[in-house]
Amino acid sequence: MIKKTLYMGTMAIAMMAISSCADDSTKGLSWEIGDGSEIEYPEDYYAGGKLGTTTNNSSTAYKQPTLAVENAGMVAAFNEGEYLFEKNFNTNTEGAFHGLGPVYVRPGCLYCHPGYGHGARQNTYAANLQRNGYLLVIYDKLTDAYIRSVAGMPQTGAVKPFKAPIDETQINIAWNNYTDEWGNKFDDGETYNLTYPDVTIPASAYYAPVYVQRDGKDVEIAAADYDNNIEVRLESTIGIYGTGLLDAITDEDITAQWKAESPFVTLNPAMWDQATNTWKSYYSNSKQGDGTKYVRRYTYALSRGPLLDAAGANAIWNITNVTRSDRRYHYLDLAGKYYAEKSSKDPEVQAGFTEYINMVDPAKAHPEWHTGNLESDIKTYLTSQTLDAEMTDSQYKNLMIWHRGLAVPAARNTTTDDFKAGKELFSQIGCAACHRPSWTTGSDEIHDPNLMFGNVDMPRYPYQKIWPYTDMVQHRLFMKNDIRTGWCRTTPLWGRGLASKCGSGTERMHDCRARNVIEAIMWHGCTAEGGKSDAYETVVKFRKLTKKQRDQIVYFIESI
Asked: C-alpha angle with apex 255: 252 to 261, nearest 5 degrees?
């Protein structure tokens, strides 16, 4: 029997309170998973299909391997990948977790993915704060492009003698109240609260000068002009379970979904040409790979394609700055020079660099870092493209086997009347238009844009009917302090009802602004921030439901 998981075994009854402004409405509702081997459950019970579902609904529900991992004989590899995910990296020069820095976003993965799930809402920002899933999004107000003088995922941690690109003690997160057009109140008198984050970083917090790119040229933003040119937002991590199943959806089927929605809703013009009904932007990797084009499927911004070169594959390098054989360079600012230039001229960095570089390269295998010209040595080291690999290829391979091998918890309460009623209402009022309930995977060919794995196999999920509740398309909600660009990929809903039990962040939406399902739904009804939400009419219909019907939709969402 595979580690930790009891496939289709008997599960205990788990009583959970649905978090909403009306807690009384959910008392007495059952959270029974049941026995899938003895009871004929509806197909949506198997959220990840027969190969990708776990019936474990305990505190480790998000950590379970899929049946495909066991079938492929990859249990040992999965376990090692899990180990790499769960431990902190350090500043040692050898060992499984060495190589942190010289600057970093987090020391390890679990900081951002508590319980393997969603990041949790925060009132302060700190790199070493557990459950802080926030990534800073710093961009040019004029172009919506990331600023050039910090990394795309800005770093607030550093290894001495280096200094953090952003001083996190100067980052301020304020939570502001928001009142919608209905006064935060349903017609029957039930109320709800809406809040949103306002994160600010002053010009003084940046180590290097602030640059943006305009008309193809980098332009420095003076401190006096900073507030007029630079905007900051927060984006929180989402759960990583089930991402391998989303990888098994074919590019052709995702393209068909965009085509199906194109006649009815405005789609992101940066991604999709609605005049020709074709993609305008594909994902490709020409640096490590051969530039093959793939459909975009991961991250809010749809910045990534296949899983083996997607967010997790990137994060294990750029969050910790731990190098590997295909990434033998540091993750620094987007321009690749401003942090290095500032550091090379910093007397305090110069004073500690010789000790640092002798620790990193004691055999002086890189003589270009030891010339005695400190300014040159520091800049050469920070901008090097020939750093030694700190993570082995075997470790990285096993991490990706683990990543692709995480199961999705089975849906709960699928045989209850409240689940059935909530599911029907979910579709009737239009939620399923964006939160598409199910997909059927293809033959699940493994794609590797990074060309890292060669003939190495991965857990596979061919021809599985899965229930992620996402259309894999970007939409706009026009919220106060909205996501950068306003376009956000529909986040999968599967498994989120177990967030509290698993120690994950229970909040919803891209910046944790929604503390429960009701708040998340009502944030979909915005009209005042430059347009009308794509889900506005659905929210209007939701408001017309009775309290019992609203509670049934919440119950359904928490059960899937």
From this structure: 145
Q: Is residue 339 part of a domain?
A: no
User: Where are the alpha helices (H) located in 308-463, listed in sequence order?
Assistant: 311-318, 338-344, 347-360, 374-382, 393-404, 417-428, 431-434
Amino acid at 105: V
Cα separation, 60 vs 492, whole angstroms: 19
Q: Flag whether 315 is in a domain.
A: no
Q: Are 173 and 124 in contact (CB under 8 A)?
A: yes
Burial of 485 (0-12, 13-18, 19+ CB in 10 A): middle
Residue 511 lies in a domain: yes
What b/e string do you get for 432-449 counting C-beta neighbours within 10 Å, with b at 16 or more?
Answer: bbbbbbebebbebebebb
Residue span of the structural domain in which 67 resides: 23-72+248-282+411-559
- Mean pLDDT to the nearest integer, 480-488: 97
How many residues make up the chain in this entry? 560
Q: What is the pLDDT of residue 5?
A: 38
Cα dihedral value 446, 449, 452, 456, nearest 10: 10
What is the amino acid identity at position 526? Answer: C
Chain centroid offset of residue 218 CA: 29
- The number of domains in the chain is 1
Which residue is listed with tokens 């709960």? 412
Give the span between the Cα atoms of 395 and 78, in whole angstroms: 10
Examine the pLDDT at 528 and tell me if it is beyond 90. Answer: no
Q: Is 60 exceeded by the pLDDT of residue 6?
A: no
- Chain centre distance of CA 199: 19
218 is a domain residue: no
CB 47 within 8 A of CB 409: yes
Q: In this predicted structure, what is the pLDDT of residue 8? A: 32
Rg (CA), the chain: 24
Confidence of residue 7 (pLDDT cuts 50, 70, 90): very low
H-run or E-run covering 198 = strand 194-200
Q: Are 181 and 528 in contact (CB under 8 A)?
A: yes
